Amino acid sequence: PRRDFISVTLSPEEAVGAGGYNNSKAWRRRSCWRKWKQLSRLQRSVILFLFAFLAVCGVISYTSMGEPWKSLTNKSLDDQRTEPQIPGLKLANPAVLPAPQKADANRGDYPELSPQKPPKPPHVRRGPSNLQIKPPRRDGRLKPRHDSSRVEEEPVQADKEEKTEKSIISWRGAVIEPDQSTEPPSSKIKEPEKPSSVEAEDQKEPVPINERQMAVIEAFRHAWKGYKDFAWGHDELKPLSKSYSEWFGLGLTLIDALDTMWILGLKEEFEEARKWVANDLVFDKNVDVNLFESTIRILGGLLSTYHLSRDSLFLEKAKDIGNRLMPAFKTPSKIPYSDVNIGRGTAHPPRWTSDSTVAEVTSIQLEFRELSRLTGDEKFQKAVDEVMKHVHTLSGKNDGLVPMFINTNSGQFTHLGVYTLGARADSYYEYLLKQWIQGGKKENELLEDYMRAIEGVKKHLLQRSQPKKLTFVGELAHGHFSAKMDHLVCFLPGTLALGAHNGLTADHMKLAEALIETCYQMYAQVETGLSPEIVHFNLHAQKGHKDVEIKPADRHNLLRPETVESLFYMYRFTGDKKYQDWGWEILQNFNKYTRVPTGGYTSINNVQNPSNPEPRDKMESFFLGETLKYMFLLFSDDIDLINLDKYVFNTEAHPLPIWVPA
Ligand code: DMJ
């Protein structure tokens, strides 16, 4: 099952303007009926028998295909992870979106923005000032960091031994030295006088917000208006039907958006949302939540908001949800189950299997480790570190590339032989690097696994398309290469660039530059200027064919963040304005094709049809949590606006502090 076939039921008023289409449909229906009546009884019986026979065959083949088909289907697996299905709705009326306008990149067309008063530039100084933070103590007994008022961070004490350990890291015979890295690219934007000095940061005047950032603030406010008017306190906005959908029933969009509001300086909106968290957010609920999704969105969102605001409310809530998620780890192998009932304290795998998804069990570490550091309770970190250690030793990898599933009973990888950097494996790679950075670059096993995996990508998954020779990351299934790339893979250029910034080989930066170009082309070569969920690249030049081909089942866009996320890293580290310009184009196209006039933005079904992109009636929480946040940061020239030497973003764009070695 997939969500590709979600559609929206129209109310009669909404259907105004689509009259011609309905009439012709009705006419077709009548003429079919007439033809049916003209058939003899025998002919009708034969046709009915054939239909019945096909239906029975369909049911039998569906049940016999079973699990392997489900897990290995070529389609967007990310959608199947955990998200609920909404069956049987009709296609939405394109008329609910602003009438598509002719693109005029030079003028920077921006429907709806110009007539509105520009929002006031926010005055709040964003971001915490002092982030000299200690990692958890190795003796396992962590010092509680939290006090109910403000957190006093501890001074950095550089450890001499550690310095020697850090300067040379040997990986598979290769020596990675910090000076092999690309020049610290942050400096390409603006050299901070004292990059990590608390006083320097405090004394600095806030950098004024520029026009493009204002446009992001306007977009956020528009999205927030829809959420506030029609979905307040619920998980996701359905902007067309002016209603909401529930997934966990925990105000997902609101929590995901908290730190974005803080970063954008939206004080009023933030205060209002804070009130909801204080008065209405209750985790004592008989509800099954997905461990990964609730960790990255809820736990991650609360922790980062706590760090930015220093408001203990968010830490209290983080502790509460963290504790409630812990039953997931009670499995024979200690590889967590995918689902937890946060009210009952029980956990279980999905109904059809005892497997968990590899990306899910290996992309909850940043959050649980940070929770241990803040609370002084080692159990959170212990549980997630154990998963990483176990995965580190497992067989079934292919030059560092991992399969997509792992069994919660045996602890072994399952469905071996399929390797992707897309759905179900993606953030495994991202979190190897980011945990290494979070922990002060000391955990060498994480770095080894990351470096090995990137070599695996180069060896097995990298190819170049035709005619533009775009470098892309395909997939490998039982030795067969497929030129398929999920939009999700576009996190990779940003991650590679972050690694290079942190002292890894400059080759990674070169690869990042090539891949971000490809990700941009996944937007630029499409009719709406928006990327589909999945593309297939052409390996052979054919007249009239572009590099990017799109299958009908893959042409939706869910307002995903990965490309703008990578654009943000690339701009921070190179200072090359083209990355900002590409992001600006993408924002304009989101405004053109996904903005709903009454508030909110919607996923669309067809990026190839500018005159009817087929809105899906859903605004995913990551649009506010990630996409708009990364846009805002991309357009900023202030490297201290979430300084990447002090913070590491979790996979849902929630910044968590880097622990400064004691
Ligand atoms: C987000 O929930 C996270 O970025 C996750 O890692 C992947 N999928 C969505 C966004 O596309």
TrEMBL record:
GO process terms (BP): carbohydrate metabolic process; ERAD pathway
One Pfam family this sequence matches: Glyco_hydro_47
Originating species: Mesembrinibis cayennensis
Top EC class of this enzyme: hydrolase
Keyword Endoplasmic reticulum: yes
Ranges that cross the membrane: 45-65
Sequence ranges of Basic and acidic residues compositional bias: 136-166, 188-205
One GO cellular component term: endoplasmic reticulum membrane
Required co-factors: Ca(2+)
Family assignment from sequence similarity: Belongs to the glycosyl hydrolase 47 family.
Disulfide bonds: 490-519
Function: Involved in glycoprotein quality control targeting of misfolded glycoproteins for degradation. It primarily trims a single alpha-1,2-linked mannose residue from Man(9)GlcNAc(2) to produce Man(8)GlcNAc(2), but at high enzyme concentrations, as found in the ER quality control compartment (ERQC), it further trims the carbohydrates to Man(5-6)GlcNAc(2).
InterPro entries: 6hp_glycosidase-like_sf (IPR012341), Glyco_hydro_47 (IPR001382), Glycosyl_Hydrolase_47 (IPR050749), Seven-hairpin_glycosidases (IPR036026)
Keyword Calcium in record: yes
Alphabetic keyword roster: Calcium, Disulfide bond, Endoplasmic reticulum, Glycosidase, Hydrolase, Membrane, Metal-binding, Signal-anchor, Transmembrane, Transmembrane helix
Name of the featured protein: alpha-1,2-Mannosidase
Ranges where the record places region Disordered: 75-209
GO MF annotations in UniProt: calcium ion binding; mannosyl-oligosaccharide 1,2-alpha-mannosidase activity
Annotated Ca(2+) binding sites: 651
Highest taxon of source: Eukaryota
Pathway of action: Protein modification; protein glycosylation
